[in-house]
Amino acid sequence: MSPERILNVSNLDVHYGRTHALRGVSLSVGPGEAVGVIGETGSGKSTLARAIVGLVRPSAGRIAIDGEETTRYRARQWRELRRRGIVQYVFQDPLRSLDPDLTVEESIVEPLLIRGRSRREAADRARELVARVHLDEALLSRLPGELSGGQRQRVTVARALVTDPRVLILDEPVSALDAANRVRALRFFQELRDAGTSLLFISHDLGSVAGVADRIAVLYQGEIVEDGPARAIVNAPKHAYTRLLVGSAPTLRSAAAARADREALRELLQTIGGPAQ
């Protein structure tokens, strides 16, 4: 496993009884890199994310986080790793992942208080983070049920960022958002990536991931069938399933089709001896 990678997954298998959820999955995330994992429901995306953070035990393979192999960690070792905040997991449903009886500020600062930080220091950090995720400071005193879906999603990200994680795992982070909030969220994730946070962005929506990810891995029936730079995956998909995903994303389909048409025209003109356009 490459030590300069923040996250390394190698030949990972996961079984649920007789069901083979993941087969030989390998991927890595470097410092400040955004990697997208794309696949339909049931392809194994969330299983992969949960295995990385120790919520699912692999049947085979290896996982290393920041150079530390975690594959066979026991519960106590996982608790210690989570408290250090090296890796954070932002769950798909922000309402269910926030305690309904805690205010926004209490949810954000809880990890710091557990680590022994003072309440004043934690409160200062909460104000800093709500500003970073583009939320009004007045929301700190509100409960999750008083927020919009987009606001709750940003609160979960702020809570994840409070420990300055090396890698942030985002599980379908925009699936529950309307179009306007989806655009805002994707811009924010680009800001996180540009600021040096490593991202593992898990989604069924290739169109959402393509604008954020540096690389994309395509997961199909528990296996990675294609992995490469985001631009190559979108513009020149090799696997039939990847081509299907590109074809089902309207904004990507039009761009890719236009490029294909230009290439076909260029080849035709060269064949007949005409000038390349």
UniProtKB/TrEMBL annotation:
> Where's the ABC transporter domain?
7-246
Q: Is ATP-binding given among the entry's keywords?
A: yes
- MF (Gene Ontology): ATP binding; ATP hydrolysis activity
Keyword set for this entry?
ATP-binding, Nucleotide-binding, Transport
Q: Name any Gene Ontology BP term.
A: transmembrane transport
Q: Which InterPro entries match?
A: AAA+_ATPase, ABC_transp_ATP-bind, ABC_transporter-like_ATP-bd, ABC_transporter-like_CS, P-loop_NTPase
Q: Does the keyword Transmembrane apply?
A: no
Q: What is this protein called?
A: ABC transporter domain-containing protein
Query: Which species?
Result: Phytohabitans rumicis
User: Lineage of the native species?
Assistant: Bacteria, Bacillati, Actinomycetota, Actinomycetes, Micromonosporales
